[in-house]
Amino acid sequence: MDPKIDVRTESSSMPSSIRTKEGDQWNSKPVSYKMYSKSAQIRLVSSHPEVYEPCDDSFALVDALLADRTNLLEHHPSLCMEVGCGSGYVITSLAIMLGQEVAGVHYIATDINPHAVQVTSETLKAHGVHAEVISTDIASGLERRLSGIVDVMVVNPPYVPTPEDEVGRDGITSAWAGGENGRRVIDRILPIADKLLSDRGWLYMVMLAANNPSQICLAMREKGYASRIIVQRSTEEESLHVVKFWRDSDIQVGAREPTTTSRTTSTTVMESLFSQFPRLAFWRNDNNSY
Ligand SMILES: C[S@@+](CC[C@H](N)C(=O)[O-])C[C@H]1O[C@@H](n2cnc3c(N)ncnc32)[C@H](O)[C@@H]1O
């Protein structure tokens, strides 16, 4: 793999050099910045055949974080968590993105695949940032410690509709196998996210049109969360959404509809989703077209 790293961001607050690995040697190299781009690319220094390599969905998630970066900086998160970190591309990008502008942030990343933990640790180290990386099923064993204190959670889950028996298999299959409607792992993550997120916590999650995003938003609305699409990209193969969720005191927990309107739930949720279209990214062959 090419050891060079290229970080492209909207910001000038990134470190001016970055550590890369060539063979067994760690080197410091200047980082090339291309300003005003809305795409961040980190060329990884570590990989493993059974670990998911960053792909369109990973890029969409990082682009969503970049698009929301100003809000993230103002949010001043204390604890950021990634569930299913794979190569470490997303958590590393987030840590670089928040950088020195938000001091004292603690990062935690989990993955069910132990190889992913190793690769993520190497990627973080290569970029000079730190996260606690834990091999576990979603957040198993961490619930008590992290209950109600995660300010930002990012998830690119296994979302591909597959036969049920492919879910939870060892190795690379666990990276994409999502069972019926691709929802098996997503539907397990959502209630855990609800427990771990702080009152001001934000969740960014990648999902496919096939996962029925409006139904996911409705399920989260019942837990008191508002939602908005930050990025939407259509490729020839799939229609990806990155949706942000946050607790909204105007939404009654358990209520399927806002109390202020008599419109149907499905209308309301779809409007909530698609009213964001002016901000959406329609991706064809160009990563930067917003
Ligand atoms: C689509 S990949 C995303 C990897 C990385 N976040 C990215 O965006 O490139 C999904 C990741 O979730 C992990 N995963 C699958 N099921 C999991 C579970 N139950 N708990 C934790 N991680 C899981 C997989 O091992 C894989 O690394």
TrEMBL record:
InterPro entries: DNA_methylase_N6_adenine_CS, Euk-Arch_PrmC-MTase, PrmC-related, SAM-dependent_MTases_sf, Small_mtfrase_dom. Keywords: Methyltransferase, Nucleus, S-adenosyl-L-methionine, Transferase. Its main location: nucleus. Residues 1-25 are annotated as: Disordered. GO terms for cellular component: nucleus. One of its GO terms (molecular function) is nucleic acid binding. Pfam families: MTS (PF05175). It comes from the Eukaryota. GO terms for biological process: methylation. It is found in: Nucleus. PANTHER family: METHYLTRANSFERASE N6AMT1. Belongs to the eukaryotic/archaeal PrmC-related family. This is Methyltransferase small domain-containing protein.
